[in-house]
Structure formats: C-alpha cells, structure tokens
Amino acid sequence: MPSQFPIPRPSTTTGTDPGERSAYDPAPLEAASELHAGNVDVAAKVYKSTMGRTQIHGWVAGSLDKAHELVQDLVKRPAPVGEFLTFAGASCYCKAGKLKGKSRWRHAVRGWLRLGHAPCVQEYFNMCWLHNRHFQVPLPLVGGVVRQHGLPAYQFLITRQVLGSVTLDVALASEPQPRRRELLRELAQEVGRMHALSFVHHDLFPRNILVAPADWPRRILFLDLWAGGDCMHFRSPAYDLGGFLLESAPLLEAGERRQLLEDYRTSCQSQGRPAPLDLLDRIGVQYKKLRARLAQQPDRLRGQPLPENWAEMERSLRAN
User: Fold this and answer.
1) CB 230: neighbour CB atoms within 10 A?
2) CB 228 within 8 A of CB 200
3) Would you give the distance in Å from CA 217 to the centre of its chain?
4) 3-state SS of 234-282?
C-alpha cells in the first residue's frame, strides 16, 4: 500500500527569553490548514458507537469528529451515497456505502494480511500519496471505515469539490484546438510520471479523469483511485494504457493516439524510467482482455458500441 508521507511540522521550541517570539509561529500553519494546502494524511482516530468501531483518517482540524457525526446519519441510508455537501467549511463530494457479502470478506482478508484497506480508505491514502508528489487530485479530507465484529461494514470518503470541472470525455467533446492537444499532452506527461514512480491507476478511463477550468495552470486531475497504488499488485502500466485507449476509442483521432503514446514515452524517459521497447505489444494484451470483458458484459458499454478490435487500433498506432 502507499507509504504515508506527511509533511513534517517544524519544531515548537521557544527561545529562552520570555519576550522572544516563538521559533515556530502556529498562525501560518493554521491559515494553511484553513486553505487546505498541503500536509495531508497526518491524523487518524478510532470511535466506538452503536454502529460499530469507526476508524477515520484526515488532516483538517476538527474534521474527524465532524466526519464521525456525519457517518452516523449516512449509515442509516439504504442506498449508496454520492452527493455534494458542505464539509470543513467548503463544498465537497462524499461517497459512502455498505460493504456486503464476498466484498466484505475480501477486503477484511486484505486488511488482515496488510495488503490494503477498505476501498474508500485505500483511495484516501492513494490520493494523499499522489497529492504529496504534486499530482492533481480532488483534495482528500477524510476517509474511513466502520467495522462490525472485526469486519468492514461501511466506508466513506470526502474530497474537495473541483468547481467548474468536467470529466475528460466531456472536455474532449467541447474543447477547441489547440486546448484539446494541450490536455492530451498533459495527461500523457502525468501518466508517464505516475508510472515512473511505480504507481498504477488501475481504472484510467476518461470518466475517471477530471479537467479543471481553462484558467488553471494544470488541468488534469485523477479520480477513482482505490484499486491502484504504488504497492505490489497484478496490474501494469500497460493495463492503464490499454484501458484508456479502449474507452477513449470514440473520442480520439488516430493521430492523437499516436502522439499520446509518444508524449508518454518522452515523459517516462525524462523521469529516468524509459517505457519498454515492446510497449505496444504489452498494451495489446491488456486491450484485448478488456475488450473481451466488455463484449461479455455489454452493460459496461453504457449504450455505446463495442470499440474497435486491437488489430485495427494497432494499425492506427503504427501508421506513419
């Protein structure tokens, strides 16, 4: 699982002179916390109540107690939660829901073996890991899990809302050139940097990539990060790329796909981790597996036609 990477706090040692200003003035740090700037993943707290044993991770002062109060209401809802709300004085997005059946046991075993957390908690840690390495994600505020009889029963994650953002599939349909080209270049650069740091997204689909408003210096943000990480796992960078090419097939032109992979290779090289020479072959293996899954589970297509087969996609990627 991603290692925790809190930004260290400065010393609180004061001078010997009572009138001397403290070597550490807490006001700037408190102001930074109010602005939700940096220093994520620095606290955790366990609560015991009638709904079970709740462990919450967070970093904004007072937010853990508020999150515990909130989840006591959320857990009563029969359906999963996905809604915008005000939390820690800002507009946020909350997702929460029950863990049931095999999923409940699977994540319990993963926790016992120290292979990961409940999905929402794992996503909180993954977002903290990326945030602290200067990737853009909706800022994670709290992530937690409610356990009953030692088993994870309910989970939740609250992140800051990215005002004015849309998903990449929506942005590509509306952005003019050259901004469309700039978005794809930034995406390739960030994914290359992510993979160079051994972090695999696992669900790198256009719907899981946010595009911030045009006045942001950097516009790409990553969503739905619970299944990936920088830990040892069964997915490879080629899985990310194969999934993205598959689900973005209707959105990108052949030249845009080729340039995306070229920018990706350049990004990997710049990080000292060159992409493998057989990258296209590796992508093809994953693309074909994911396309076969779509063919077997057509509900995943959300009404869209099955993307082109790998032979056609590969031809367009290898064309001069």
Assistant:
1) 17
2) yes
3) 20
4) CCCHHHHHHHHHHHCCCCCCHHHHHHHHHHHHHHHHHCCCCCCCCHHHH
Find out whether 247 and 203 touch, Cβ atoms under 8 Å. Answer: no
pLDDT (0 to 100) of residue 24: 41
**CA gap 75, 214 in Å, rounded:** 38
User: Which of 140, 132, 151 has the alpha carbon at shortest distance from 226?
Assistant: 140
| pLDDT at residue number 8 | 33
| 93 vs 142: CA distance, rounded Å | 11
pTM for the complete prediction?
A: 0.83
For residue 107, CA distances in Å to 27, 114, 118, 226, 242 come to: 41, 10, 6, 12, 26
Question: Given CA atoms 271, 117, 167, 242 in this order, what sign does their dihedral have?
Answer: positive
What secondary structure letter does DSSP report for 301?
Answer: G
- Residues 127 and 145: their CA atoms lie apart, in Å, by 16
Cβ(135)–Cβ(197) below 8 Å: no
